[in-house]
Design goal:
- The complex is a heterodimer of chains A (about 210) and B (about 90).
- Chain A is an all-alpha fold and about 210 residues long.
- In chain A, about 65% of the residues lie in helices and about 0% in strands.
- Chain B is mostly helical.
- Chain B has one domain.
- In chain B, helix 2 packs across helix 3.
- Classes of the chains: A mainly alpha (about 210), B mainly alpha (about 90).
- The interface between A and B is large, with 63 and 53 residues.
Chain lengths: ~210, ~90
């Protein structure tokens, strides 16, 4: 029996007969579940998967409640647990789809280039102003739609590397792919997302490109 | 000489790792000469940053997603299930 399990079972009963750790985590569920759900949803891109990941997170929180010292806020601590559970979710998905490899060629992206490898049509002009974009809820809705439309493995790689800013070698480990595969996946994800945003969100004030 | 197709791949790769010196040089030269690739490079670099910032911060308040009540119930009952003492209390 681990130290934390012992801590849980040794606790005196309070709060209407419930052990304090359980009471604490139940309060956290009430206070932080929505926040954690919003955090998880764009990352796992599926409501049921987000609920499962949330449940795993709170179970982990209960098992480890004795180690929570309050140096950080409960929310920060819970987000740390959640990030680990999201990585586990990717790992599991990856084991289930081992056969699904990352192709080096991608017809969607290649269609933008001629046989000599030059642009058929340049990317449309769009000046991206980071500060202004943060405030635009419609941009993020379009972006999450584009992310959802990506092949799953590309979206997973992009989420871990870019949205979560995890280090490349960590992403490789989670997805069990080689660095070369990761560069390919990320390039494909970025090029497809850019093209999707170009089609659905860029407002070209140039009118035409030539 | 790099093609545009190769250049776009290297632009992306350059966001994830430091490219070897000669590759970096060739890429910089190509992007400086090519309007299509310079747009591509500017856009994906800016997107990369703005997306990392957006999701690195707290989920925005205007996203009003809530955990469905039945999921909250499920989570709470799973918590009680693994808590030995509470087991007797909550089982009907």
């Amino acid at each position: 029996m681990t130290r934390t399990q012992k801590a849980v079972s040794n606790t005196r009963t309070e709060h209407g007969g419930r052990p304090p750790d359980l009471h604490l985590v139940e309060v956290w569920v009430d206070e932080h579940a929505d926040y954690l759900f919003r955090y998880a949803l764009p990352r796992v891109r599926d409501r049921h998967a987000a609920e499962d990941v949330l449940q795993e997170t709170f179970l982990a929180a209960l098992k480890a409640a004795a180690t929570f010292r309050g140096d950080s806020s409960p929310r920060t601590w819970l987000v740390g647990l959640l990030r680990r559970k999201i990585a586990d979710h990717y790992r599991k998905r990856c084991r289930e789809r081992r056969d699904e490899s990352i192709d080096t060629t991608d017809a969607t992206i290649d269609a933008r280039f001629n046989e000599k490898g030059s642009w058929i049509a340049w990317p449309r002009r769009c000046d991206i102003d980071p500060a202004a974009l943060q405030q635009k809820a419609d941009f993020w809705r379009v972006f999450e739609g584009c992310l959802q439309a990506l092949p799953e493995r590309l979206a997973d790689a992009f989420t871990l590397r870019v949205m979560d800013s995890r280090k490349p070698d960590e992403v490789c480990k989670v997805l069990s792919i080689t660095p070369t595969n990761l560069w390919v996946a990320l390039h494909r994800a970025r090029a497809r997302l850019r093209a999707c945003l170009e089609a659905n969100w860029f407002h070209s004030d140039a009118g035409e490109d030539l | 000489m790099l093609t545009c197709k190769e250049a776009t791949r290297l632009v992306s790769e350059g966001l994830d790792r430091k490219l070897p010196f000669w590759q970096r040089l060739g890429l910089r030269f190509h992007v400086a000469m090519c309007r299509g690739c310079s747009r591509f490079a500017r856009q994906i670099t800016a997107l990369n940053r703005v997306i990392a910032d957006h999701y690195g911060n707290a989920p925005p308040a205007e996203v009003s997603e809530h955990v469905p009540p039945d999921a909250v119930m499920r989570i709470k009952s799973s918590l009680r299930r693994i808590t030995p003492r509470a087991n007797d209390q909550n089982r009907k």
